Amino acid sequence: xxxxxxxxxxxxxxxxxxxxxxxxxxxxxxxxxxxxxxxxxxxxxxxxxxxxxxxxxxxxxxxxxxxxxxxxxxxxxxxxxxxxxxxxxxxxxxxxxxxxxxxxxxxxxxxxxxxxxxxxxxxxxxxxxxxxxxxxxxxxxxxxxxxxxxxxxxxxxxxxxxxxxxxxxxxxxxxxxxxxxxxxxxxxxxxxxxxxxxxxxxxxxxxxxxxxxxxxxxxxxxxxxxxxxxxxxxxxxxxxxxxxxxxxxxxxxxxxxxxxxxxxxxxxxxxxxxxxxxxxxxxxxxxxxxxxxxxxxxxxxxxxxxxxxxxxxxxxxxxxxxxxxxxxxxxxxxxxxxxxxxxxxxxxxxxxxxxxxxxxxxxxxxxxxxxxxxxxxxxxxxxxxxxxxxxxxxxxxxxxxxxxxxxxxxxxxxxxxxxxxxxxxxxxxxxxxxxxxxxxxxxxxxxxxxxxxxxxxxxxxxxxxxxxxxxxxxxxxxxxxxxxxxxxxxxxxxxxxxxxxxxxxxxxxxxxxxxxxxxxxxxxxxxxxxxxxxxxxxxxxxxxxx
Length: 546
Hints:
Elements (H helix, E strand, L loop, with lengths): L2 H15 L9 E5 L4 E5 L2 E4 L15 E6 L2 E6 L2 E5 L4 E4 L2 H4 E2 L2 E2 L1 E9 L2 E9 L5 E8 L4 E3 L3 E2 L1 E10 L2 E9 L4 E8 L5 E8 L3 E2 L6 E12 L2 E11 L6 E11 L4 E4 L13 E8 L2 E6 L4 E5 L2 E3 L8 E8 L2 E6 L4 E4 L4 E4 L7 E6 L8 E8 L4 E7 L7 E8 L6 E4 L5 E3 L2 E6 L7 E10 L2 E7 L3 E2 L7 E5 L7 E7 L3 E9 L4 E10 L2 E7 L12 E9 L2 E9 L2
Antiparallel strand pairs: 1-2, 1-32, 2-3, 4-5, 5-6, 6-7, 8-9, 10-11, 11-12, 12-13, 12-14, 15-16, 16-17, 17-18, 19-20, 20-21, 21-22, 22-23, 24-25, 25-26, 26-27, 28-29, 29-30, 30-31, 33-34, 34-38, 35-36, 35-39, 37-38, 39-40, 39-41, 42-43, 43-46, 44-45, 44-47, 47-48
């Protein structure tokens, strides 16, 4: 058994067996020459790749995941996915090869396990590139419309309906940097025409943008780090430096991020941004320079040992930074400490699962439909005096937050379910599920941004997955008609027919207990369910573990 898979088993066993107040997290870092590092409760270690190992030996350039059982490694020509059991390559060649052109993947990001976006680009000439996005909606991968003359270097995703990019725009005479966003159902748009080498009305105006440096999500909104100059109403002249830009009023306008000392910061070569909230922002970059903005006050910690390439954190008091010469730094809310990495390779990407309530939470899932959003979670144990609180934030609105009544939560043993029908079609929301015990409130999990579909479509999913001994397939029918729901093995052989009948339009569910049509238990492994209604069909992978 390879060491990486052993690590995952240890992580899973920790969640299943430990009881108390222990927390666990798993963090991955990517570096030059195919270097992959992981940080768990036992410290930092190099992840083996190549022949005889779980992960193929590629020079990966980006990583993203929704949980320890849903992780993606990105190479320009390969996408490797960990599904909780093994690492497998996803073939996207049909989307990456278009006519005479071959696209290379660059960045991956997502808002949930069912909302993932990849940016890819290709050369049309020595000076001109084209960017397109690949989308995963929980069912299948698809490709969006191309953006000619644009090379995206940064990507962040609020939902499938709105992805933000930053990069270079080429023509035969000049090169400029710009920020743009892509809407899944429409086309590309530039953010208020904010291009380098051009003036914009953002700021006191006119503001001149020199370049963009980073693009990151902070509390579900994209924050852009850039450099430029703006009119200073206090001195009557121009001021030059770094600035941060963020959207408001449902993305209809963009504003400069203000501090107690103004909108601009000294240009110390900051190249990366991370924030736990609008009031708590960190910047880092060349020569180890850092900047911390907390409630409008700006401080500059002492420079670190080397240039910082990326930052990521679980909370304001648990932040990581990686950079040149294998440097790994961790912030505990007071100071930055150096961690032993075991490598001298440049580290340029960091991602983690965040903090998991390992003693209690086993699994969670978000399901969305045009009429509701359903939240499901499973615990290892339940005390009779435990009380849950579910908070919903309207991300695509004014950011208002409400508490959903705990009386609407349905319990089935250790599994819990809440259906939120107070959502609007086409709007985006995020959820925080916490529990209260002995007067203390603890967060179980926070969802990514979930978008309610704008039209009723044929949808299906199952929970739990992986499962033992049974799983429930939930599906929504857009209209009344004949429906067939069947289970197949990996060779395409029919294993079980669950439904072959006329059903009414609406929501339905069917239980599969892991037996075939003859009533015999099937072996552990990967299976597929296929739902067919009229001319539409949905196929999903399910995993049985005995």
